[in-house]
Write a structure and sequence with these properties.
- By secondary structure, this protein is α+β, with helices and mostly antiparallel strands.
- It is built from two helices and four strands, in the order E-E-H-H-E-E.
- Strand 1 and strand 2 form a beta hairpin.
- The longest helix has 6 residues.
Length: 97
């Protein structure tokens, strides 16, 4: 049977808000974890946004925009020896073996 604790010694209380965990080398590195971590940046802003309470606001959908027109090509492939268009040209040389 283990010996009973002595009544003269008060039990040691650990701080309620901080927990200490040893990582790697026990005596050199101590990681202190928060018991109430705070949200940062975008996560906080998304959580604290106003909620939609009005029926017209609840039924409102995201804006539908028309599709963008196709972009002009940055490079036009032209066989060597032909006339070049006004757009920038990337010439492709045919390798003969």
């Amino acid at each position: 049977m283990p010996p009973a604790p002595s009544p003269s010694r008060a039990p040691e209380r650990q701080h309620q808000h901080a927990r200490h965990y040893s990582v790697g080398f026990p005596s050199l590195l101590v990681v202190e974890c928060s018991s109430r971590p705070q949200k940062k940046g975008t996560k906080h802003h998304m959580k604290t946004r106003p909620t939609k309470m009005q029926p017209w606001d609840i039924k409102r959908l995201p804006t539908q925009y028309p599709p963008l027109p196709p972009l002009p090509p940055d490079w036009t492939l032209v066989a060597s020896g032909t006339t070049a268009p006004a757009t920038p040209v990337l010439e492709v040389a045919v390798a003969c073996h």
